[in-house]
Specification:
This protein is an alpha/beta fold. The chain folds into two domains: 69 residues, dopa decarboxylase, N-terminal domain, CATH 1.20.1340; 263 residues, Type I PLP-dependent aspartate aminotransferase-like (Major domain) (Aspartate Aminotransferase, domain 2, 3-Layer(aba) Sandwich). Helix content is 40%, strand content 12%. It has 14 helices and eleven strands. The strands form two sheets. The protein has a seven-stranded mixed sheet, with helices on both faces. A four-stranded antiparallel sheet has the order 8-9-11-10. Helix 5 packs parallel to helix 12 and helix 6 crosses helix 11. The chain is globular. 44% of the residues are buried. The structure holds pyridoxal-5'-phosphate. The site of pyridoxal-5'-phosphate (PLP) has 13 residues, from helix 6.
C-alpha cells in the first residue's frame, strides 16, 4: 500500500502529532536560541519509497529542528521581525487545509473575504474609503506594485502606455526620495526603470526625514513634468518618518505620484500617541504596509493599497479566456504579479477579529515603550552610544569610543548574538557601523528587556 493512501487513512493522527509537535516548539520558544549560525547540512537523498508523514516529522525534528532560530520569539530583534499571534497561526494553518486559489472570484467566497479583510485594515490604518487593496507576499512586492502603477501613470503624460509599448519611447522616469528602503531600488530594477532613476534628496540634520524645502526645490525644477515621490514612513535604520503632511501639501502644487513605504511605520496609526506621524497618509496614491512585521501574522504577507485601481488593472490585467472577468468582486489575479494565490488574507482576518483595534494599539505602544527604554539605557551607558533619537520601535546604536573600528562593533554584536538570548542586526548609519534592535513582536515584555540589557552589558566587560 502506498504511503499516501496510508497517510490518508491516518490524517487525524498526522494532524494531531503535528499539533503536538508545533505546541512543543511554540511553548519552548524562549529557551530556543534567538538565532542560530547557519551550518552546512549533509547531502539529502530523495527516497525511492517514502517514509510517510509521521516518520518524516520525526526525521525533521531530529535532524533539522535544532537549526531553526527563535525568530518567532520575543527577543529576536533583527531586521523588523514580527511574531505570529495564536489567531494568525490558526488562520495560517487553515489556509493549507482549505487550499483555496484566490486568483479568480469564481468558485468560492475567498476573494470576498480578502476584500472584507482589507476593509478592516483600512479602518485599522485610518485610510480613506477610496483606497482599494490587495494582499501580496511582502513589502518589496507591494513597493513593486505601487511603483508599477506610478510608472504607468508617469509615462501617460508623454502619451505612452507602458503596458502596451514598454518603456522604450518614454522619457526617463524620475523617482525622488529621502531615505528609500533597498527594496525601492530592487523594484526599480525589476520595473525596467533602473536604480539610477532614484534621486535621493538630503534629509534634515541628523535625521532620516526628507528636507521638505529641498524637495520642493527639486519639484519646482521638474517644471510640471511628472515624477514619483517615495515617502518613507518608518526607516529601517532609525524608524524615522518623512513629514507626510508637508508632502501632502506639496501635492496640491506639483505633479507627482506619491508612494508611501509604510512597511512597519504604518502601525503608528494604531495608537493615538503616535498616529500623528501618519497624518497626511490619505494623500498617497499608493501605500505599502507589511503584515508579517507588526501585524504579527506569519510570513509571507503584506498589503498594497491604491487610489488608482483602473491604472492597477491596466498594468496587471491577466487576460485569459479561461479566467473569469465578469464578477462584482474583482479577480485578484488582475491586481498583482501573481496569478495563483494562496488564501493570504485569512491569518490577518483571524488576528484582527481575535484581538481587535485595542490589542493592536497595545502591541504597538508596548513595543515602542520597550524601544524607548532600551534607548534610554544606552544613552546613560558609558560604553554604548545611541546614534539616533528613538522615533518608533527601532534603537540604533554603536560602541562609545573615539576610535572604534567597524570590526569591533561587529565582533561585539556577534558575541551578543551568539549568546542566544537576543538577536540584533547590523547597519551603516551616516558612515558609522551600527547595531539595530527592532521591537515588533506581540510577546516582548519588560522581562525580555532585562535579559536583552544583561546580554549587552555582559559582552561589554
Ligand atoms: C521590511 C521593509 C521592506 C521590505 O519588506 P519585505 O516584506 O521584506 O519585502 C520595505 N520597506 C521597509 C520600510 C521595510 O521596513
Amino acid at each position: 500500500m502506498g504511503m499516501l493512501k496510508k497517510d490518508k487513512d491516518i490524517i487525524n493522527e498526522i494532524l494531531y502529532s503535528t499539533t503536538e509537535y508545533a505546541n512543543e516548539f511554540f511553548s519552548t520558544l524562549n529557551e530556543r536560541p534567538a538565532s542560530i549560525k547557519p551550518y552546512p547540512l549533509p547531502t539529502e537523498n530523495l527516497p525511492e519509497i517514502g517514509i510517510g508523514t509521521k516518520e518524516a516529522l520525526k526525521l525533521f525534528s531530529r535532524n533539522y529542528a535544532n537549526g531553526l532560530s527563535g525568530s518567532n520569539g520575543s527577543r529576536y530583534l533583527g531586521f523588523v521581525t514580527g511574531g505570529a499571534t495564536p489567531a494568525a497561526i490558526a488562520g495560517d494553518w487553515l489556509v493549507s487545509i482549505f487550499d483555496q486559489n484566490v486568483s479568480t472570484n469564481e468558485s468560492s467566497i475567498a476573494s470576498s473575504i480578502e476584500e472584507k479583510t482589507i476593509d478592516m485594515l483600512k479602518d485599522l490604518f485610518n485610510l480613506d474609503k477610496e483606497y482599494s487593496g490587495a494582499f501580496v507576499s511582502g513589502a518589496t512586492m507591494s513597493n513593486f506594485v505601487g511603483l508599477a502603477q506610478a510608472r504607468q501613470w508617469s509615462a501617460q503624460f508623454s502619451g505612452i502606455n507602458v503596458t502596451l509599448d514598454g518603456l522604450f519611447g518614454a522619457p526617463p522616469i524620475k523617482i525622488i526620495s529621502g531615505t528609500p528602503h533597498s527594496s525601492i531600488y530592487k523594484a526599480c530594477s525589476m520595473l525596467g526603470v533602473g536604480k539610477n532613476s532614484i534621486i535621493t534628496i538630503p534629509c534634515k540634520k541628523e535625521r532620516e526625514s526628507i528636507d521638505i524645502e529641498y524637495l520642493e526645490e527639486v519639484l519646482i525644477k521638474q517644471n510640471d513634468s511628472p515624477c514619483i515621490v517615495v515617502a518613507n514612513a518608518g526607516t529601517v535604520n532609525t524608524g524615522d518618518f518623512d513629514d507626510l503632511k508637508a508632502i501632502a501639501q506639496l501635492k496640491s502644487k506639483y505633479n507627482f505620484w506619491l508612494h508611501v513605504d509604510a512597511a512597519f511605520g504604518g502601525f503608528a496609526s494604531c495608537s493615538p500617541k503616535y498616529s500623528s506621524l501618519m497624518t497626511g497618509i490619505n494623500s498617497a496614491d499608493s501605500i505599502t504596509i507589511d503584515a508579517h512585521k507588526w501585524l504579527n501574522v506569519p510570513y509571507d504577507s503584506a498589503l498594497q493599497f491604491t487610489k488608482h485601481r483602473t491604472i492597477q488593472l491596466e498594468v496587471f490585467e491577466n487576460n485569459a479566456a479561461y479566467l473569469s472577468n465578469s464578477n462584482d468582486v474583482l479577480d485578484y489575479c488582475n491586481l498583482t504579479p501573481e496569478n495563483s494565490r494562496r488564501f493570504r488574507a485569512l491569518p490577518t482576518w483571524f488576528t484582527l477579529k481575535a484581538y481587535g483595534k485595542k490589542e493592536y494599539q497595545q502591541i504597538v505602544e508596548r513595543n515602542i515603550d520597550l524601544a524607548k527604554q532600551l534607548g534610554a539605557k544606552i544613552e546613560k551607558s558609558n560604553h554604548l552610544k545611541l546614534l539616533s533619537q528613538v522615533h518608533l520601535n527601532i534603537v540604533c546604536f554603536t560602541l562609545e569610543s573615539d576610535k572604534i573600528t567597524s570590526d569591533e562593533v561587529l565582533n561585539f554584536m556577534e558575541r551578543v548574538n551568539s549568546n542566544g538570548q537576543v538577536f540584533m542586526t547590523q547597519t551603516n548609519y551616516n558612515g558609522i557601523t551600527a547595531i539595530r534592535a527592532a521591537f515588533s513582536n506581540w510577546n516582548t515584555n519588560e522581562e525580555d528587556l532585562e535579559i536583552i540589557w544583561k546580554s549587552l552589558v555582559e559582552e561589554l566587560k
